[in-house]
Amino acid sequence: MTGLPAGTRPQAAVTVTALALGVDMFLYGSITPLLPELPAVDGSPMTAGVLFAVYAAALLAATPLVGAWVDRRGPRAPMLAGLLGLAAATALFAAAVDLDDGPGLTLLFVARAAQGIAAAASWTSGLALIAATHEPERRGRVMGLALSAVGAGVLLGPAVSGPLSDAFGPRAPFIAVAVLAAGDAVARIVLIKPMAVAGERVPYRVVLRGPRVALLIALTGLGAAAIAFPEPVLPLHLSDLGLGTTGIGLVFAGAALGGSLAAPVAGLLTDHAGPGKVASAGALVAALGFFLAGRDSAVLSVAGLVVVGFGAQLVLAPTLVLIGALAEHTGTAAYGAAYALYNLAYTAGLALAPLAAGATAKATGIPTATLIACGLAVALAVVLLSRRDQPSAASARPSELTRPGVTKDA
Known about the structure:
There is one protein chain. The protein has helices at residues 10-30, 45-73, 76-96, 101-133, 136-168, 172-191, 204-207, 213-228, 234-240, 245-273, 275-293, 298-327, 335-364, 366-386, 393-396. The protein is mainly α. α1 packs antiparallel against α4 (101-133), α2 runs antiparallel to α13 and α11 (275-293) packs antiparallel against α12 (298-327). The longest helix has 33 residues, at 101-133.
């Protein structure tokens, strides 16, 4: 994908992408406070973990195809296709929430898979659209804004769905999702314009030879894992500590608020201090949060969850800037492929962390599971701080010869 989208303004690209990611995360988070009450889940940490992992697995499977689609046809068609998956997921969730055993669990899994496919379309094409419409030196800030919308979606999802479910029944939250999705659809249709694309797609193997790709993919996966690890087990833990559906929703909303506040700050810090330092600080913050989250105190558990959300965004925000640089280390900017790789790494974290959390909590208990997560976060911080070649903000930016529309022979 090369050149700027004809007629798509940078502000419109950020607005549409932020709205798309926010609505996806609103739906993603809406299910969290409902977990203890879902008949099909029946209080099982392992079942809850699988439910979250299904979303990630579907996203993982669809993302490479979407990345190739974006680079061949531009971001508009994939963004519009994502609306279909979002609509299907919303309807299926509404149908499944009061069913038990086989039928209910099957519908929940299908709904989560449909949402994952829709997310693959929205995330990959949306982030590629932002990268294509902004110069590298501005991407830290605008990607941070996009991540703020993700945090806002995760914030509002649990905060709204818990009280709505208590007041009007478990289907009520998905009516709110449908209203948001309608506004999302209007924005995508009106604001995203067709885009000139290159005649040939840059292969994934070329993008994978970019600068520090292994480190960037690892950070992305681990940042996502930090977000996903508490989701299947902490609602059950907080329920045991006496919190109801509304309380659990507000707790996860607070954690999302911490992430939402961290994202733009992390983007600005990345532009000035460099990604390595910001990510290592985020890992230490997340470690503290995990240490607190599994304690036998509602106050400490709530505080820990909020701290984890803040730290995870400090890890994730720098990677968005650096993944953008991967797209531009060749003559033809391959934003679709680069952000598909980002989504693959992010999704791997989302898929593995809930399964690990559910299995570990079942074997050892939730407090021990969170302590293990704490130790892993500390180990990540040590590795990052010991690196002598931490990428700087300046080195993450491509030269003028690799910017969109500028060939190496220019």
